[in-house]
Amino acid sequence: MQAIDPAQAGGPDVLVPVERPVPPPRAGEVLVRVAAAGVNRPDVLQRQGNYPPPPGAPSIPGLEIAGEVVALGDDVDPDLLGTRVCALIAGGGYAEYAVAPAAQCLPVPDALSDVEAAALPETLFTVWTNLFERAFAVEGDTVLVHGGTSGIGTMAITLGNLFGLETIVTVGSDEKRAAALAIGADHAINYKSEDFVARVKEITGGRGCAAVLDMVGGDYVPRNLQCLSEDGRHVSIAVQRGASATVPLFDIMRRRLTLTGSTLRGRDAAFKALVTEEIARTVWPFAAAGKLKPVMDRTFPLAQAADAHRRMEEGAHVGKIVLTMG
Ligand SMILES: NC(=O)c1ccc[n+]([C@@H]2O[C@H](COP(=O)([O-])OP(=O)(O)OC[C@H]3O[C@@H](n4cnc5c(N)ncnc54)[C@H](OP(=O)(O)O)[C@@H]3O)[C@@H](O)[C@H]2O)c1
Questions:
Q1: Could you give the number of structural domains in the chain?
Q2: Counting beta carbons within 10 angstroms of the beta carbon of residue 289, is it exposed (0 to 12), middle (13 to 18) or buried (19 or more)?
Q3: Potential cystine with 210: which of 125, 141, 274, 311 (Cβ 3.0-4.6 Å)?
Q4: SMART domains under this entry (predicted)?
Q5: Across residues 198-221, what is the average pLDDT?
Q6: Mean pLDDT score of the chain, rounded to an integer?
Q7: Which CATH number do you get for residue 38?
Q8: How far is the CA of 19 from the centre of ligand 1 (A)?
Q9: For residues 268 and 51, what is the distance between their CA atoms, to the nearest angstrom?
């Protein structure tokens, strides 16, 4: 099969198609003929050599796929054969075939194209587990999400609208501000021209928000804490401005704030299976009804994976970038 499997770390140019054997599905796994594979920021970090695949994961990048199940490993429900699925995987998506744990597959409803389905799992699992589980966001809560037009940010806006959250997002330009509002954010703040702490206070009438989903880190963390209401929750999912921060402990005590965070890729299969089952119950009915769709930026053929990464690194994209296997 054709796959992207760079021999060494480097710039986008290392992403050239090569021949690789079709991976055999092991017990509990399915083999998927990949129609489309989502591109995520962690793939860029992996390509640069800063985010190695966890032990046992393929070196081929790609954390989410959609396509047809064409072979089954042992102990897999035979009804899965021939069905259209999308799946969260620990790697291997940038290829014509990929294996996925059957317990991490979701059926693709008619309302979703393969490209749309491939763009969902990574951000859906990440936002669901961090915003709704770790941060306990519930209907009526106001939440602050940085990177409002990112893959993650657009999913947070989409889920926020489906589950009755008031979303405030930050973005780095007026064009992205308009895009975030068009996608459905309740408020969008251009952090380059406005102080997001002051704006969040203003929007919430001085109360602050219930949760912050933070992909920025560094000096944003103490500022994020200022945006939280009493008993507010701060969830770290990335550290683009720095992996450490100085936080005001007495303020955390006085206002009973919670600081937490997580990474999805390294979690074990049992956890991912539980989340899949939960998403199938709570979120997937919206996908079947045509109410959950990813915000799409662009697609690129697999052979142009380098251009897909360049587009992500330039940072002008809004929503998801997806590779198609054609
Ligand atoms: N913990 C996990 O399990 C997990 C899982 C998936 C992804 N992630 C992380 O989540 C982040 C988003 O992933 P993605 O695939 O959605 O990537 P993406 O679409 O490339 O988004 C990155 C976003 O970060 C924003 N950004 C970058 N530098 C910033 C800064 N200094 N200040 C404020 N905003 C900044 C950019 O917004 P502007 O252009 O508006 O500045 C951009 O929208 C990545 O950092 C990724 O590693 C974590």
A1: 2
A2: exposed
A3: 141
A4: PKS_ER
A5: 98
A6: 98
A7: 3.90.180.10
A8: 31
A9: 17
Atom index in ligand 1 nearest the CA of residue 319 equals: 19
Q: Quick: pLDDT tens for 71-101.
A: 999 999 999 999 999 999 999 999 999 999 9
**pLDDT attached to residue 326:** 79
CA of 144 to the centre of ligand 1 (A): 14
Per-residue model confidence (pLDDT) at position 159: 98
| pLDDT-above-90 percentage for the chain | 99
Strand segments, DSSP code E, in 89-227 are: 97-101, 105-107, 142-145, 166-171, 187-190, 209-214
Residue closest to 31 by CA, chosen among 83, 98, 92, 91: 98
| Boundary of a domain, candidates 261, 282, 315 | 261
Identify whether the C-beta of residue 51 lies closer than 8 Å to the C-beta of residue 45: yes
* Residue 312 amino acid letter: M
Spacing, Cα 238 to ligand 1 middle (Å):
7
* pLDDT of 188 over the 90 cut: yes
Supply the residue whose CA is at minimum distance from atom 24 of ligand 1. 147
What is the pLDDT at residue 236?
A: 98
Average pLDDT, stretch 198-210?
Answer: 98
Ligand 1 centre and the CA of 23: distance in Å?
A: 31
If asked whether residues 22 and 34 sit together in one domain, one would say yes
Do 64 and 116 lie in a common domain? yes
Residues 183 and 237 in one domain: yes
